[in-house]
Design brief:
Blueprint lengths: L7 H5 L1 H9 L17 H6 L1 H12 L6 H9 L40 H7 L40 E7 L5 E7 L4 H12 L7 E7 L4 E4 L6 H5 L7 E6 L5 H4 L10 E2 L8 H9 L6 E9 L6 E9 L2 E5 L10 E5 L4 E6 L2 H5 L6 E6 L10 E4 L3 H16 L1 H18 L16 E2 L6 E2 L3 H24 L10 H5 L13 H10 L6 E6 L7 E7 L2 E12 L2 E5 L6 E2 L2 H10 L10 E2 L6
Parallel strand pairs: 1-5, 16-21
Antiparallel strand pairs: 1-2, 3-4, 3-5, 4-11, 6-7, 7-8, 7-13, 8-9, 9-10, 11-12, 12-13, 14-15, 16-17, 17-18, 18-19, 19-20
């Protein structure tokens, strides 16, 4: 039995769909048409059913009443559609006015599947729930599929890209396409990957202005495209190493002498307290001392007492007085960048070689608006430049320093363990007996090393007598093999080697090797220690007809320069410190 305008829940339920096909045919007298009352016995026997049906009909949506009215006037055919006109042979039933007719029943019809019924006549699509307005009619309309099509949404704005040209130390260059939000750290990692270099977090991007004689290392968080927008057409980016970029966080006590730093609060002078005073925005550290200051628009330089604060750089108009009435603003850190002078003496007539500059970002080619300053030595200049960076960026600079370390700590658990090469990780061993033992006595360890060295040379001499090639033989390979190493820079001058050391950071243990200009058969080791550059000559020496290289007049001999460098990376020997970082030039 089906109600005229009944709910979809009856049609969708599998039980009722199965029961419709299995329902036996009824006699015409058993069913009541529109306007015909049911027999008394059936009404009496189904009184409870009438009450439930009445409640169900009364709860139907008002939108179904029109459908019910249509079904009363137009009876359904055997295919489930409304009749559009009088059907031949069909008896038209005229509804009679029945007092208080409570339930109306339809004629027996064969109910088709719901999907087919809706396809044949979309006007018969009913719902058992109240009509809910569709918030997206354009997506689920009659002519549109309910799913999103590839072209249904408007295209989003494409990420802006820009070509950046980066130069290396040897003059080669590479054009890289970058996004507008790429930082200097991201670009350096991209160049390291494409150049097949070792990423030791010391690579940096340098902003170079040859017409102004200025350069600086970009901070890791700076946007490359934004920095390039403030550069002139003659300016360019350089890709080089800088081991001293975050050296302050490793050894802060070596940067600021006590006479140059004044704190607004009591400081115990410890490593942690020094970092907190600079990184804490509420503290007021001051860097003070004498600097040579170039007057704006003039060629003259004056030695003034200068004070650096968070608000800017000030000079005293009366000796070393720091009273507010005697302080005059020289430059502001906000909206400016700190550069180093490349050739301050030649281009600006600087009194020393340790010059730096505070350049406003709006200045591109005008040198008259640059605030040029000079320190007495390299340590003082490093102190002033580092203090300017710390006061300007603060905690952001410390985060740049910590990000690579945190990333390395996360990846360390997934990487294979690597043996440490520190000088404390190697011990002397004695394997003369059945089992090896560690030699605790330093004198015994040194004696064992000398005996092993003599035994090795005797074996090599015996092999030469027998006609075999010895690794200590002065062959062509041992004399040129060092030229394949990154730390060897060939025939460069002393001044050029010092310039490379300064560019890549004055940190302890930074070194390079080059050919000697005074002795064609010798080499020179250029080493940085305590921000000073020193040169050590490597001389060839002969022993038993074999050629060796030595730094200490033949006391310690090596067959080639690679063995010499490997040795002094583990032992400082006659050097002031061990070899830690080598200067490198990469061709892009």
């Amino acid at each position: 039995m089906a109600l005229a305008g009944g709910t979809d829940s009856f049609l969708h339920h599998p039980y009722y769909q199965g029961q419709v096909e299995q329902t036996p045919p009824h006699r015409p007298g058993d069913l009541a048409g529109p306007g015909f009352p049911a027999p008394p016995d059936r009404l009496a026997g189904h009184q409870e059913d009438d009450v439930d049906l009445e409640a169900l009909v009364n709860d139907m949506d008002a939108s179904l009443e029109s459908l019910c009215a249509a079904s009363e006037t137009a009876p359904l055919l055997h295919n489930g559609q409304h009749s559009r006109g009088p059907t031949p042979g069909a008896r038209v039933l005229q509804p009679q006015a029945a007092p208080r007719q409570r339930v109306q029943r339809s004629q027996p019809v064969r109910i088709l599947a719901v999907r087919r019924l809706q396809e044949e006549d979309p006007h018969l699509r009913t719902s058992s729930l109240p009509a809910i307005p569709n918030p997206f009619p354009e997506l689920c309309g009659p002519g549109s599929p309910p799913a999103l099509t590839p072209g249904s949404l408007p295209p989003g704005p494409a990420a802006a890209k820009q070509d950046v040209k980066v130069f290396s130390e040897d003059g080669t260059s590479k054009v890289v396409e970058i996004l507008a939000d790429m930082t200097a750290r991201d670009l350096c990692q991209l160049l390291v990957y494409r150049s097949h270099c070792v990423d030791d977090n010391s690579w940096t991007l340098v902003e170079h202005h040859p017409h102004l004689g200025l350069e600086r290392c970009l901070e890791d968080h700076e946007l490359v495209v934004q920095v390039e927008s403030t550069m002139a057409s003659e300016s360019k980016f350089l890709f080089r190493k800088n081991y001293a970029k975050y050296e302050f966080f490793k050894n802060p006590m070596n940067f600021f002498p006590e006479q140059m730093v004044t704190w607004c609060q009591q400081s115990n002078g410890s490593h942690t307290q020094l970092l907190q005073n600079f990184l804490n925005s509420s503290s007021c550290p001051e860097i003070q001392g004498f600097l040579h200051v170039k007057e704006l628009g003039r060629k003259s330089w004056k030695k003034l007492y200068v004070c650096l604060r968070r608000s800017g750089l000030y000079c005293s108009t009366k000796g070393a007085s720091k009273e507010p009435r005697h302080l005059q603003l020289l430059a502001e850190l906000e909206g400016s960048s700190i550069f180093s002078l490349i050739a301050g003496r030649k281009q600006y007539g600087a009194p020393t070689d340790y010059g730096f500059c505070i350049k406003p970002n709006r200045v591109r080619t005008e040198a008259k608006e640059l605030r040029l300053l000079c320190a007495e030595d390299e340590q003082s200049r490093t102190c002033w430049v580092t203090a300017c960076r710390l006061l300007k960026y603060g905690m952001l600079l410390y985060q740049n320093y910590r990000i690579p370390q945190q990333r390395k700590a996360m990846l360390s658990s997934f990487s294979t363990p690597v043996r440490s090469v520190s000088e404390n990780s190697l011990v002397a061993m004695d394997f003369s007996g059945q089992t090896g033992r560690v030699i605790e006595n330093p004198a015994e360890a040194q004696s064992a090393a000398l005996e092993e060295g003599h035994a090795w040379r005797k074996r090599s001499t015996r092999m030469n007598i027998l006609g075999s090639q010895s690794p200590l033989h002065p062959s062509a390979l041992s004399t040129v093999i060092h030229r394949t190493q990154h730390w060897f820079h060939g025939r460069i001058s002393r001044e050029e080697s010092h310039r490379i050391i300064k560019q890549q950071g004055l940190v302890d243990g930074l070194f390079l090797l080059r050919d000697s200009q005074s002795n064609p058969k010798a080499f020179v080791l250029t080493l940085c220690h305590h921000q000073k550059i020193k040169n050590f000559q490597i001389l060839p020496c002969e022993d038993d007809g074999q050629t060796f290289f030595s730094l200490d007049d033949g006391n310690t001999k090596f067959s080639d320069l690679i063995q010499l460098v490997d040795f002094y990376q583990l032992n400082k020997g006659v050097l002031p410190c061990r070899l830690k970082h080598h200067c490198i030039r990469v061709a892009l």
